[in-house]
Amino acid sequence: MMERGVTYLLTGNKFLVVAAISLRSLREHWDGPVTVFIDPEDPHLCTIRQIASAASASAESFDIHRQHRNTCYANKPRLPMTSPYRHTVQIDADTVVVGDLGELWPTFDGELVLTQFADWVTGPQGGPKSRHVYGRVASWEKADPILAQQAMGAPYPAVNTGVLAYGREHPIVKTGWLAETLKNPNAFMSDELAMQLIYPEYPNVRMLDDRWNFSPIYGTARGRSDTRIVHNHGKKHANREQNRALWWPHFRAAWDEDWGGIRAWCPGGDGRLAEYIKQHPEAMEEEPCQSQ
User: Fold this and answer.
1) Ordered DSSP codes for 15-73
2) Quick one: CA dihedral 84, 71, 207, 183, positive or negative?
3) Where are the alpha helices (DSSP H) in 121-280?
4) Fewer CB within 10 Å: N-end or C-end of the chain?
């Protein structure tokens, strides 16, 4: 078993471009092992393997649990049980790594490291934006009434599972996260809400601020000053100006290098990027730029 490594789950063609950009940016800050979990039946497997190879990452088959809706959410809690590392950083494809991973790594085998979404909390005490989290938690009252009501009554930090890290012995990632997700597997963001409900019940959970999972839309001032990972949640990397300002230089650097053969398959199934390029062809004709 390897000591430390980073994992991704990459299926389908909607996330091909953002995953390539994320992996390329990761390699600017991490030269250790990386595993990209893949669906061996994916029709875009050749391109996915090409992206993994460009990042010097191993591409490992993953037994995808298929369901009617939100398959990706239901599979994320299965990744920790498949990780080949003692200590794992697990990152969503729609991210850009812009700093050293440093504090994100677990410090022992039984530690879980979570990242807060902006400065939101679960209860209504956090103001208008936090009420989004309150409402999402409330939607789980039928699936887990005790934990849902507990979270609704307490201002727990709102987590985003697009970036997290764990030692392989923490009980949440061994069994708890998946078990809670399976109480409501087809729900929107089932993995994230499951983690939101259960993490206060467990020891050895360390919460990092949103520098490690920075939303260009909702991120805090503290996050902007020392960001390590940018998360373009909801595929907003191309159609939101504040997201695009952070993402586009990394995309253009990959394009200029033809990193992972991106010129042959971009934009893949990324409809928002395709629309932006169509409406702004001059953006692809600018002078080559360097990622920040």
Assistant:
1) THHHHHHHHHHHTTT--S-EEEEE-TT-TTHHHHHHHHHHTT-EEEE------SS-HHH
2) negative
3) 130-138, 145-153, 171, 177-181, 190-198, 221-225, 241-257, 262-265, 271-279
4) N
Q: Cα 176 to the chain's mean position, in Å? A: 19
Domains of the chain in sequence order: 2-119+157-284 (3.90.550.10)
48 phi and psi, to 5 degrees?
Answer: -60, -45
From first CA to last CA, the distance across the chain in angstroms is 34
Q: What is the pLDDT of residues 158-187, one digit of tens each?
A: 999 999 999 999 999 999 999 999 999 888
CA 39 – CA 6 distance, rounded (Å)? 18
Phi, psi values for residue 62, rounded to 5°:
-130, 135
- DSSP state, 214? B
pTM over 0.90, yes/no: yes
